[in-house]
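Quick one: Glycosyltransferase family 9 protein from Streptomyces silvisoli, structure tokens please.
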Amino acid sequence: MGLSTSEQPPVRQVLVLRALGLGDLLAAVPALRALRRRLPDHRITLACSAELADAVATIGSVHRLLPTTAPGRSVPERLIWAGRPPDIAVDLHGSGAASCLPLRALRPSALLAYAEPCGPPWLPEEHERSRWCRLLDWYGLPADPGDLAITVPDTRTSAPGAIVIHPGAEAAARRWPAERFAAVAQALHRCGHRVVVTAGAGEGHLANSVAVQAGLPPGSVVGGTTDIPFKRLAALLAHARAVVVGDTGLAHLASALGTPSVVLFGPVHPRLWGPPADGPHRVLWHGDPDGDGRPGDAHGQQPDERLLRITVEEVLDAVNTLPPGPARRHRLTGTDG
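--- reply ---
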């Protein structure tokens, strides 16, 4: 005889903390997929910004979003959790005790984290995707760092086959000069490519400056006043011919969608945050390959000297050598044939 509705055992709950930006969320996709796959009878809740709701839904591994905010890249002081304590709490946010505090305060039955006495050691030179997969591996939940692909949103784009240029970045240290982005855009436009310049909230002036300097036609800038809605942004990138971008969230989105990209790195070594080596991507970086991987300040107020070593000619050469990618499924025009 089965249990009555009132006697059904409670659903097991997993609470994951990753209250950071879009790129951070996408770097955690392999770990989130592993949790869903290895714990099929658990309900997975992700604590992150409500602004990432559409992106979280696209991942397909999270049952519920718990809106959580904190200034910059700091740790939320408190998580608003209702009901009984989580069965499992997972810290995918940080490396120390601070990011465990809001999870520990909920008294979960188990806490998976680097700061725990029984957890694995933190390796500062490790790639971000591999880091969180290794954490789960340590606790008996195998994860594949290569499982990063997301579903293309069922949203039309007004610029299929375009080359997308994203000149913005959260910090100036990772922002290649606007005049160089403009020179790249101008050269591609003159070769017959359609070029679209994207901008996040507050980046409209930068994007418009690039478009004007490049001589692009009206309507070539997308976004700027507010962030581009995720579904629209993902559709644009999914159907793009290529993406030219710095070390920022848009680069991770191109990787997740399998869109060919040229990614410009400066203060941080690409082995820590770069696209998968087996994907249709080109990484440009002029640092010491034998260094510790963190030669500069990723949040600095001036463009990193390694980023400034990248030339316009290098970027154009990289775009021209990009391999075909999923974006070529549709018919392209102009120089695409």
